[in-house]
Model the fold of this input.
Amino acid sequence: MSVPRLVPGDRVRFVSPASPPTREAVARGAELLSAWGLQVEVADHAFDRTGYLAGPDLARLADLDDALRDPGVRGIFATTGGKGAYRIAPLLDFEAARADPKPFVGFSDITYLHLALHRAGVPGSLHGPFVNWSDEYYDAGCAERLRRSLMEPEPVVVSSRPADYTAQLSSAGSATGVLVGGHFDSVSRAVGWALPDLDDAILLLEDHHGTGLGQVDRCLAQLVHSGLLRSVRGIALGTFGEFETTTASGTTLADVLGDWLAPLRVPILGGLPIGHGLNPASVPLGTAATIDVAAGTLTVAPAVH
Done:
């Protein structure tokens, strides 16, 4: 399923469902989207701060629900991730979201919201950069990929980079299924309440060094022992930032991932520039995807029409 593409003149809303952004970076994100002809609005509580959260749960929820319900808002962008999206994910107005689906962009902790929306049958999620925009992390090519994924109804093709750490985990074959997933730690912690059915899915996993090797091991155990991976079609591995030199008593991230994923006996494509890294790709979630290990590509049907 897809949602209407964004066109110049459309209103879009910036929301902060997790941690608070910085005003300067959000202003840069607004400048970027305004250059595409979009009318940028910032939610009422986007810059609130309650500890590590962007305001109280009900305020963050209200901002996101208001954007989902407003027929004049044609796209929603999370300012940043961090912590807290899991606190409001089950409470979203899914009925309103189903009635008027629209693109919703973010990653990291926002994965909880993408998963909950997908489980509720709401299309339009996009695993893409935050509008808490940093030119240090996101270059012009990254911005253009985001624009095209939202404004051009064409497949998204992401090429594996053989030099990237997770490329060594690639295995032979190809597979087609619905792309589901995102931030690995969030995916595993969503088992039992937000994680949708993974039968016939291509499971996307990416993470960053803060998770730690032991936690990666526990997260994989949670996913495998839940039984949810028994019928996945394939695995797409994005960036696992700063894990390249990490070991625990001689064990590496590649060892841990291989121990749990290889026995699934499905095609695995690693080395994808998706997630917590420089200039990440923008990838639709909840649409048909194909991994072709020989070609080194992940091809995803567009999120928009």
About this structure: The chain has two domains: 11-151, 156-300. The first strand starts at residue 11 and ends at 15.
